[in-house]
Amino acid sequence: MSEQKLLSGRLALVTGASRGIGAATALALGQAGAHVVLTARTAGGLEEVEQRIHEAGGTATIAPLDLAENDSIARLATAVAGRWQSLDLLVLNAAMLGTLTPVPAIDPKEFARLFTLNVTAQQAMIAAFDPMLRASDDARIVGLTSSVAQKPRAYWGAYGASKAAFETLLLSYAEEMKAISRVRVAIVDPGATATAMRARAYPGEDAGTIQTPDAAAAAILRFIAEPFATGFRLRVAGSARDQVEAV
User: Is 159 a catalytic residue?
Assistant: First the structure.
């Protein structure tokens, strides 16, 4: 099988797939042969990514939705299960940054919204797609995280706390699944990448000095295309050279 078709016949689902790393990863998966289900709130962005996948010779299905809505994830899982028997790759990329502010100044309402998307919705995704993941002969969950989940940073308390909780959920699920299923879990920190979220966090930063979403996606694809032990953590160096290191 050629390198470009490593994932032929596989079904992947990518959240936050309308732009940035999510869009780039979805395109890379489609080029590698997977059929990609694209989810995000912005239908127009998803349509653009779907078109790019088709133009590259791949296939995709779009599912515009807000993961934070009450029954959106259940409806998505029902629709996907109605068409496919198993899910081979779940990329949990969708997240919100929130306001970077001192811990005492965190707005309670925004904090609740941030945890709803970054933590609660992620657990709901795992729960909703658990049966389809177990039905796969080689299922993988990849959760996108940030270094602030492991190394707290001033003003990043809200986002960092949500990512730390997200990592704990994923690693707990990994431990639960490793002896009873073929589901493997990995946490990927893409490093400094030129995305809209990064631009909000670091206004004025020269995007040319850090890696592009395409470079980050290429590194992620190389990783997930190979066997890895469940619970593995990968950090992608955030330089234009796209070096990869396991931490």
Answer: yes
